[in-house]
Inverse folding.
């Protein structure tokens, strides 16, 4: 894995995170503005970092590492909140089971960690 993989993954997640945030907010009875802002902001930061890598790789790598750090923190926080809410009674009928949400967020966190690690690894072939 190298910075090109991390850049490609940043473009994919930069688009998916805001889209999934929109779906999540529409599916809830009470919209969460701050969660939506975090989704859009982190997606925009990932896209900006991917663009910076395409402009100048050495400088862009720093932006990419910072963007992945932000997204990793958001995924970890979301995963911790979801794990803590398992077993608590729901106010309404959720669209997805809490276990599925935890599994999906955990998988997303692993992918984000792969993107973060690949952005930090140096290309020794150069």
């Amino acid at each position: 894995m190298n910075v090109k993989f991390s850049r490609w993954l940043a473009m994919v997640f930069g688009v998916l995170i805001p889209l999934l945030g929109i779906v999540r907010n529409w599916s809830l009875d009470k919209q969460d503005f701050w969660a939506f802002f975090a989704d859009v902001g982190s997606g925009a930061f990932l896209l900006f970092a991917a663009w910076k890598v395409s402009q100048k790789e050495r400088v862009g790598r720093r932006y990419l590492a910072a963007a992945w750090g932000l997204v990793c923190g958001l995924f970890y926080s979301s995963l911790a909140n979801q794990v803590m809410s398992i077993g608590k009674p729901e106010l309404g009928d959720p669209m997805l089971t809490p276990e599925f949400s935890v599994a999906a967020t955990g998988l997303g966190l692993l992918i984000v960690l792969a993107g973060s690690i690949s952005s930090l690894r140096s290309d020794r072939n150069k």
